[in-house]
# Entry
Amino acid sequence: MRKTMTLRTSPEVCSESITITVENGVIESVVFQGGCPGNLAGISKLAAGMPVVEVIRRLKGNRCGSKNTSCPDQLAQILEKHFL
# Structure
């Protein structure tokens, strides 16, 4: 089953929202709106083709400086909440 969602991120991070497409538990695409374009494009390319559970395992809990979260952590949190 294919599922696409666009969800807002935490106000603590630079990106405003993330659009994610997942099919059969595998990420097809991730697009961040706002944030650091080069870094987030890289994360998006790395996540494409990976199982949702693996992306969550690798990215959950990553922080940005002194913030409690980061754009990659927001991706993991959204995946965990809406795609598992």
Strands lie at 2-8, 15-23, 26-34.
